[in-house]
Amino acid sequence: MSSTTGGSTPYYFVPHPSRHPAFAAFGLFFVIMGAAQWINGAGWGKWAVLFGMLWLFGVLFQWFRDAVRESEGGQYGRKIDLSFRWSMSWFIFSEVMFFGAFFTALWWMRAHSVPALGGLDNSLLWPDFKAVWPTMAPGATASPGGIIDPFQTMGPWPLPTINTGLLLTSGVTLTIAHHALIAGNRTKTILWMWITVILGATFVGVQGYEYFHAYSDLNLKLTSGAYGSTFFLLTGFHGFHVIVGMLMLLFITLRLMAGHFTPQRHFGFEGAAWYWHFVDVVWLGLYVLVYWL
Q1: How many angstroms from the chain centroid is the CA of residue 7?
Q2: Which of 49, 241, 271, 293 fits a 20 to 30 Å CA distance from 262?
Q3: Contact 114, 105 (CB under 8 A)
Q4: Cα gap 279→168, rounded to integer Å
């Protein structure tokens, strides 16, 4: 449904009723239910998560395919472009709040929770606890309850620093690709986009090795007290966002190779670029607060 104002592009566009939102919610139901059962020891939970993820990815593929067809069919005018920009802006703002909550949790652990456990109020309940961060001092990790095994912290060198260089470089290559697209040089744009995607994939690989190193060599696990839980919470969710951003850039690159986007109209590219730069900025905060401090 659309209305034109004398030109070929509609002034507004209202899509037809779609099954995609309901089908996506069906897949998310299995993901959430399966994850809840999985962490509580139910063996079938992981299969429910797998089914839900595969179902959701299938729905998203069809949903995005329809959106691409509508865009390439000339259905999206200036008003739709503006609504997309506002929507992406609010989405990134919600992600800022998401990570802001995690950074606040890290600060609260270090500045309030751990010192409070070592205060006079808890001295009778836990007399041997040492209020230090990270919780790895004698008597802190080897707790009176024996629930936390000794571990080592993850330092900034070399893996986190390598990943920092990879992400910062990917931001530069993405910017070069954007300027090439504005200049109408599609070949150069595609080349630098592929370089950006490869850098993002390399980041994920390095972080995967970092987790292997943490578990096997440092005995640093999700159960390693407050430090372990916040470390994997922050870096794990950021790694998930890197994977999402990398997939976004990959699909944008494939669309560029298919002839989509023009120097004047390419918000799909810009939206993915906004998201990737946001991921870069979050990592810089993680790099300083998690690995250095």
Answers
A1: 40
A2: 241
A3: no
A4: 10
Per-domain residue ranges of the chain: 1-76, 82-292
- Give the CATH number of domain 1-76: 1.10.287.70
Q: Determine the Cα–Cα distance for residues 200 and 276; give it in Å rounded to an integer.
A: 10
| DSSP code string of the chain | -EEESSSSSEEEE-PPP-SHHHHHHHHHHHHHHHHHHHHTT-TTHHHHHHHHHHHHHHHHHHHHHHHHHHHHTT---HHHHHHHHHHHHHHHHHHHHHHHHHHHHHHHIIIIIHHHHTSGGGTTT-TT----SSS-STTTSS-TT--S----PPPSTTHHHHHHHHHHHHHHHHHHHHHHHHTT-HHHHHHHHHHHHHHHHHHHHHHHHHHHHHHHTS---TTSHHHHHHHHHHHHHHHHHHHHHHHHHHHHHHHHHTT---SS--HHHHHHHHHHHHHHHHHHHHIIIIII-
CATH architecture of 82-292: Up-down Bundle (1.20)
Is the pLDDT assigned to residue 137 strictly greater than 70?
Answer: no
Predicted local confidence at residue 126, as pLDDT = 75
Q: How far apart are the first and last CA of the chain?
A: 55
